Amino acid sequence: MLIDQYLPEYDVTTGRHVVVDADPNTTYDAMLTADLMKLGPIVRTLGQLRDVPQVLSHRIRGTPRTPSPERMRFVDIADTTEWTYLDEVPGAEFVFGAVGKFWQPEIEWRQIESEAFSEFDEPGYAKLAISLSVRPYGEQRTLLSYEARTATTDDLAHRNFRRYWRIIGPFAGYLMSRALERIETDAEARSIKNR
Hints:
Number of helices: 4
Mean pLDDT: 87
Helix content: 25-40%
Radius of gyration: 17 Å
Largest sheet: 6 strands, antiparallel
Structural class: alpha+beta
Order of helices and strands: EHHEEEHEEH
Oligomer: single chain
Strand content: 25-35%
């Protein structure tokens, strides 16, 4: 897997898979362009709960808050300030990542170039790499996979992340499942349209 080049060793990993009734190319295109802002009311509520500390912090300080994007797609990762596009095997695997202190009420993101991601080891941070991949699964079907790996850079970051992950882990898994469902729905709709 391409993700192995960027985060071969990690503290935590989680993954989800779904079989899609569409060919790999159609599924891959749907994967990159699915709007993750359309994952449903539960996901929006979870996102709003996660943002409560940031909202309060900005209100207390009287500083403006950056509005949430109108849409969120994997193909737009390179345009964000938090995420880093790492690599891609077109039609097979897409890898992106982030470096930050995810456990803080207001995440402290660390911008980093893709070439520096795998070697980054500054104390106090965690690195998150995410792989989305497609593989043929019989005739005109696809195995769509989502894997997230996190590695911390020192013992204190490791302890902080573990406490955070105990709380956020189940929600992250739910969000991953909903993202795959969104991609599956989009890919199958495209497949039917193209017949």
